[in-house]
Amino acid sequence: MTYYINPIWFYLIDVCGGLKVLCLVVGIFALIVSLVYLVYGMDELKDYEGYEEEWEKCSKLSKKLIIIFSFVVALGLFLPKESTCVKMMVSSVITKENVEVATEDVKELVDYVVDKINEVK
What we know:
Blueprint: H1 8-45, H2 51-78, H3 82-93, H4 96-120
């Protein structure tokens, strides 16, 4: 049997939906950790001498986490929803030629059914 749409695509669509949720969760987690680390670093380090070096480390780590947050959330936003993926697959199969062939086949089928009904009467 020849498939118009390979069934593996439906599995991959489902995985894509899970990946989208994972990206958003990881992004939010990275943002929260970054903010907590910054606030904690500011509060704890301001009482020590030479806190500038430690503050630099805190701010660098926070910047990295914010970059991770931005990347992961952007990835999550650009991953399509499951319904969008299905629509894209179906639209790639539905072409003008396929619709014309299907219309002819349906007409032939209706004619056949009508002929059989007339034979029974």
